[in-house]
Amino acid sequence: ASSFGYTTSPPGTKCIFGVDARDENSHCILDGGDYGSMGWCYTSSDRSSWGSCGDGCPLYGANKVLQERIQALENRLDEQAKDGIRDEIAAEDGEAAATAVESTTGAPARSAHAASPRGR
């Protein structure tokens, strides 16, 4: 496809930043949403081709701040989940150890009781 003398790139084509000052060397150009809700970027250094950006493209401004906060929250939740799993495993190991201790402790007590003065 063509647009104003430019070729549109197929989905998945990598953006080339730094070709236009509006991309600030790091993100897609929004242009009021005229070329996609996620913006657009040049896909060739000579500006002959471009493509609409997708959800995997880098964000900037307020959207970038929100993305970073969401990512930090996801990381915290992942750590808490890992801690919870470790706690569950430790609790299960503790229960298994307590059961083993009860069995070990219980057996000698029975034999000790049988050998007590009452058992004679």
Q: Helix and strand layout, with pairings?
A:
Elements (H helix, E strand, L loop, with lengths): L1 E2 L2 E3 L31 E3 L6 E4 L8 H54 L6
Protein name: Fibronectin type-II domain-containing protein
Structure keywords:
1 helix, alpha+beta, 4 strands, Fibronectin type-II domain-containing protein, single chain, 45% helix, 2 domains
Notes on the structure:
This protein is of the alpha+beta class and 120 residues long. It has one helix at residues 61-114; strands at residues 2-3, 6-8, 40-42, 49-52. The longest helix has 54 residues, at 61-114. The N and C termini lie far apart (102 Å). The relative contact order is 0.09.
Give the N-terminus to C-terminus distance in angstroms: 102 Å
> What is the tally of beta strands?
4
- Strand percentage: 5-15%
Question: What does the radius of gyration come to?
Answer: 33 Å
Mean pLDDT: 80
Shape: elongated
The count of helical stretches stands at: 1
Residue stretches low in confidence (pLDDT < 50, at least 5 long) are 103-109, 111-116
> Portion of residues in helices?
40-55%
Order of helices and strands: EEEEH
Structural class: alpha+beta
Largest sheet: 4 strands, mixed
Q: Number of domains in the coordinates?
A: 2
Question: How would you write the strand order of the largest sheet?
Answer: 1-2-4-3
